[in-house]
Amino acid sequence: MTSSRIANVGLVDHSRVVKFSFDGRTYKGFEGDTLASALLANDQMLMGRSFKYHRPRGPVTAGPSEPNALVTIGKDARTEPNTRATVAELYSGLVARSQNAWPSLNFDIGSINGALSPMLGAGFYYKTFMWPAAFWEKVYEPVIRRAAGLGKAVMEADPDRYEKSWAHCDLLVVGSGPAGLMAALTAGRAGLRVILAEQDFRLGGSLLSETAMIGGVSAPDFAAATIAELADMPNVTIMPRTTVFGWYDDMVFGAVEKVQKHLAVPSADKPVERLWRIAAGRAILASGAEERPLVFGGNDRPGIMTADATRTYLNRYGVATGRKVAVFTNGGSGYRTAADLSARGVNIAAIIDSRAASADFAPYGVRVIRSGSIVDTKGGKRLSGIMTNRFGYDEMIDCDALAMSGGWSPIVHLMCQRGARPVWSDEAQAFLVPDVGPLFAAAGSAAGHATVSECLRDGAVKAHAAVEAVGRLVGHVNTPEVEGEYDPSFAPLWYVPGARSKAFVDFQNDVHVDDLALATREGFGHVEHAKRYTTSGMATDQGKLGNVNAVALLAGMRGVSPAEVGTTTYRPFYTPVSFGALAGTARAEQSRPIRTSPLHGWAKKNGATFLESGLWYRSAYFVQGEEKTWRESVDREVLNVRQNAGLCDVSTLGKIEIFGRDAAEFLNRVYSNAFLKLPVGKARYGLMLREDGIVFDDGTTSRLSENHYVLTTTTAYAAEVMAHLEFASQTFWPDLDVCFVSTSDQWAQMSLAGPKSRAILQKLVEDDLSDASFPFLAAREVQLKGGLIARLFRISFSGELAYELAVPAGYGEAVADAIMEAGRGEGICAYGVEALDVLRIEKGHVTHSELDGRTTADDVGLSKMMSKNKPDFIGKRLSTRYGLTAADRLQMVGLKPVELDKPLKAGAALLREGVEPSMTAGQGFVSSACFSPHVGQWIGLAMLKSGRERIGEKILVWDAVRSSEFLAEVCAPVFVDPENLNLHV
Amino acid sequence: MSIPFTHRHILEDRMSGYEPSPNANHLTVLRRPVIFSALAHAGHEASVAEALSLVENIVVRSVSPSDWLLVSQNAEAGAIAASLGAVPGLSFAEQSDGQVLMAVSGPDVRKILAKCVAVDLHADAFAEGESAPMMICRVAGNLARTGTDTFEILVPRSYAGYVFDELREAGREYAMTRGFGE
């Protein structure tokens, strides 16, 4: 045993044993452990293999910045790769596995990469795998990915729930160490709405591993008492296990709460993770500081970790990381750790201090090597000794763990995510937070303070500012006395010269000093270039430990200050966030809102197959009897509508009610055709243009009374048309008396089409529906038998005698059922949007397949819809420009393949007969196509250059996607009833 | 031939198997409220708002400075239409079938709704009697505070099933029951 638990030390509950497994072996830890602390207590220092060289690695931190101890936690569908063992809360039944090692963690074949390392330097992919180019995607990349990597995601669907929530507060405090607690206490006592967020499962931050006394009690006791007071305040919300990962516009912070990640079997009633969007009036960053590793030869062996981590494992978890621990430091932190270890009976092998002199006290009897350095280490899966060097004199010292301290860096990430760069301080030898304005302030060691008492005071001071800013009185908060502080000063030491083996800068990506030197030599010395070239600072830890060393090393190599090198760009997320949390409830069917038609139930019981149309699910076709293909159903529906009658759900069309004295004038200006004289009780087809003269949308508008119209839009453009009308009313013509409201959801609307539709409908309607009293384009309220008031429109998209009946949505299904029942004797059928599409193509009616944002009214044969008499309407001026009136524009025509069995497909290109098929020879394209049971072959609508002059011409239909090529005849775009006789029966 | 058409609520299919006795946190779907859109013509905004506050048996939900939703649990549509018709500068359209009204209540109602709306529902920010249009479960709707721990939601009918499903999930953590109510 070299690392072990010390009885009754720390904040873990020694009476509550927690069993877990790692790589198939069962271990025991205590409640309050992390996976890393529990493994260390069991002398399992080796926790992973490195990314590129597969070197054995143990934890180097005891917190969220961990680059090495990444494991896969969970099993089956609940498997989560790349979890940091240093923050993973231990629970009973936890199953963890090591990553990136094969066949096992102890014996990993991939470690041969270490021997090949001269060939695997920075940029080796770019240089080595250049030729042949096709090999990159198919051979090189897959092989490299297999050899180098982290954990693997599982392919099973995640069985757990995730959700998102909003929170609002006057003050958000990020971090619950000394500064965060005092800030929350100060603001909480003053009555502010405070949120205190802490990424750890236990609040207290650095106080949990602090040995100094605060206000006469131990630091953890001080933290517990403060947290208890905060928990009693109704205006304070404490959020443990919550990592604030991003700072966004308008003081909105993103945070992720691990609600049930510490439970073996999560409750199905709660999410496992919850994504918070916290809208804060002000915020205080109390995220603390990170201790820096030292860059020396062999600095990555398991057992080498930061002095702070060593101390945290000791004081918080009661775990000694070794039996004989060496310390390598450039400041007071190493001495503090040595003192704590020594007090717990752990042997200190030596303190190697890079400084020539300091006022720090070593524990009694401990040897201090001043002006010393470490140039190499030895050991396999665990450190066994260090090679020290002092003025050229090498000395091997046996030890089984090393605590290193290279000084401290404030954790500035959140403040730097919106463009502000951290500011280099020569005095602090660190990058400090930038000034991002009064709403977001850093406090405590995040603000560059080092001692506990400074941090406590600074938390209170920063909170005072927030309290005063919202006009509240600041209550009195005493800053307690702190006894037993240490001297936190340190002397910069970025690189320990004389390394005899690799000196790692970025542990996670296996980037060592030579890689940075290579990058600098080859012209990639800019910090952003060096990052990409060497991968320093990439992957899951984003260089939280190594970046500052990399910057300082680049600065040293270039002979400039770290200020000049600067940092790479900080971006959310601070630590990795699962995709599940980002998706929240928006997954599978719930991934976006679903709109349900009032006739959905009717369609379903009539056998509908649905298709997605925007947010709607529309009935596409209705399978009956033995029908095996959709074509059989659609052909039957089409024939039946033209022969008997059919009922179709058109509830999804947009409906806008228009009111006002000037409604007629308003419509006259937004439509290209005339609307001023539309009589009450009549419907009219209308075409709207955009300002640029291109067709925007079409639909019918009916005048229900003198100053009341109802306008319909296509399903897809309902919201756009509403916005267009509002915009025109509010900005172009505020003088016109007109107002609008959408009633799309109020009405169930159904189209009853076919020669027998009148006879069927008359059975349900009290009013006389004869052609004389309810002619084509009549539109008015009618009374259904039983008294229900409905809106009836005699309009047709199919070209047949047809009606659209609108009833209040809740009655839709009952009315549709009654129509089907009434029409049974007449052979009525339900038909869907596929049949509707065939019916309209047969009649040459356009949809957004033709009105695709490029076509003018004339292009689609609707030039009559462009009023010559109106002084103005939206789109009139620009519709006359040359480009829109040129004779060689694409014009809508009909198409019929010459050979009857050729299927025409929308999207196919049109070419002159006999030319070599190519896109440059294109003459147009097929916009809509269908099989017409009336014509007995596939037909289509197409946009063809000068198309109307070319009726009768044979052209080549070339479909490169589906590899087909055949001749078709250009014809008029009407295939059924060209005289419109059926409409007026 | 007289046909008694049955009126169906869009959430009827979702209610089968709902808990018979409501828990502290409960979602009530109001079965047949009477709802109107009211629109003030330009220049009449203030007088229409004033007149609406005097119409009996309705509560007024604000949609925009010239646009309201009126909700009634105890008046006939015809009677309300008659009152509205007498207000100068006002146009209106019935939306009883176009909007679905749901009430969420209980001690955890704010925590439940925090998962659905981005608006701060603290009483200092959104007091009793206030209403506002907002995204509710990714759908444009209207939210009103009708009591300390009671809020009412209006969403377009076609979206109601989706919003109901999202609300049900949001309330699961707090054992929120749901059912029709008057």
UniProtKB/TrEMBL annotation, chain A:
<dbReference type="InterPro" id="IPR006277">
    <property type="entry name" value="Sarcosine_oxidase_asu"/>
</dbReference>
<dbReference type="InterPro" id="IPR028896">
    <property type="entry name" value="GcvT/YgfZ/DmdA"/>
</dbReference>
<comment type="similarity">
    <text>Belongs to the GcvT family.</text>
</comment>
<dbReference type="Pfam" id="PF17806">
    <property type="entry name" value="SO_alpha_A3"/>
</dbReference>
<dbReference type="InterPro" id="IPR042204">
    <property type="entry name" value="2Fe-2S-bd_N"/>
</dbReference>
<keyword id="KW-0560">Oxidoreductase</keyword>
<dbReference type="Pfam" id="PF13510">
    <property type="entry name" value="Fer2_4"/>
</dbReference>
<dbReference type="InterPro" id="IPR041117">
    <property type="entry name" value="SoxA_A3"/>
</dbReference>
<dbReference type="GO" id="GO:0046653">
    <property type="term" value="P:tetrahydrofolate metabolic process"/>
</dbReference>
<feature type="domain" description="SoxA A3">
    <location>
        <begin position="501"/>
        <end position="584"/>
    </location>
</feature>
<dbReference type="Pfam" id="PF08669">
    <property type="entry name" value="GCV_T_C"/>
</dbReference>
<feature type="domain" description="Aminomethyltransferase C-terminal">
    <location>
        <begin position="891"/>
        <end position="977"/>
    </location>
</feature>
<dbReference type="InterPro" id="IPR029043">
    <property type="entry name" value="GcvT/YgfZ_C"/>
</dbReference>
<dbReference type="Pfam" id="PF07992">
    <property type="entry name" value="Pyr_redox_2"/>
</dbReference>
<feature type="domain" description="FAD/NAD(P)-binding">
    <location>
        <begin position="170"/>
        <end position="353"/>
    </location>
</feature>
<dbReference type="Pfam" id="PF01571">
    <property type="entry name" value="GCV_T"/>
</dbReference>
<dbReference type="GO" id="GO:0008115">
    <property type="term" value="F:sarcosine oxidase activity"/>
</dbReference>
<dbReference type="InterPro" id="IPR036188">
    <property type="entry name" value="FAD/NAD-bd_sf"/>
</dbReference>
<dbReference type="InterPro" id="IPR023753">
    <property type="entry name" value="FAD/NAD-binding_dom"/>
</dbReference>
<dbReference type="InterPro" id="IPR027266">
    <property type="entry name" value="TrmE/GcvT-like"/>
</dbReference>
<dbReference type="InterPro" id="IPR013977">
    <property type="entry name" value="GcvT_C"/>
</dbReference>
<protein>
    <submittedName>
        <fullName>Sarcosine oxidase subunit alpha family protein</fullName>
    </submittedName>
</protein>
TrEMBL record, chain B:
<protein>
    <submittedName>
        <fullName>Sarcosine oxidase subunit gamma</fullName>
    </submittedName>
</protein>
<dbReference type="InterPro" id="IPR007375">
    <property type="entry name" value="SoxG"/>
</dbReference>
<dbReference type="InterPro" id="IPR027266">
    <property type="entry name" value="TrmE/GcvT-like"/>
</dbReference>
<dbReference type="Pfam" id="PF04268">
    <property type="entry name" value="SoxG"/>
</dbReference>
